[in-house]
Design brief:
By secondary structure, the protein is α+β, with helices and mostly antiparallel strands. Strands 1-2-3-4 form a 4-stranded antiparallel sheet, with helices on both faces.
């Protein structure tokens, strides 16, 4: 005889995903509608993800949750730079255009301190 088993773990996972999806939708709608979700999606540049597939998403997440350790603007290009420190200790930089859309995000592998990153940004025109 064969025995039929039902998996309560699979049902729990589906329920959890459904609740998470509804929660995200409610947050998006309460903050200004689905347009905000689309604009957030469009805000990120494929270049960053293609060039830095592991670091770019980690930098974005850290900046969204933990905030920026340093913010500066390049008056020549009108781009802004935000710096974060990743959980592994490395510093990450996100460059955005005047509209706040990401141009790129990258790890600053040679930086040993926040001041090293600030010095790098200053050398490249950021104030």
């Amino acid at each position: 005889m064969s025995e039929t088993r039902t998996s309560s773990g699979g049902a729990f996972l589906l329920l959890f995903l459904a609740v998470a999806l509804v929660a995200c939708a409610l947050i998006a709608l309460s903050d200004g509608g689905l347009g905000d979700v689309v604009s957030l999606w469009e805000r990120y540049n494929e270049h960053a993800t293609h060039r830095h597939p592991e670091a770019a998403p980690a930098i974005r997440a850290e900046l969204e949750c933990g905030g920026s350790l340093h913010h500066s603007v390049n008056p020549t290009t009108n781009r802004s730079a935000d710096v974060c420190q990743l959980p592994d200790g490395m510093f990450g930089v996100q460059i955005c255009d005047a509209d706040g859309c990401e141009v790129t995000s990258f790890p600053r592998k040679t930086a040993k301190s926040l001041q090293d990153v600030i010095d790098y940004l200053t050398r490249t025109g950021y104030k």
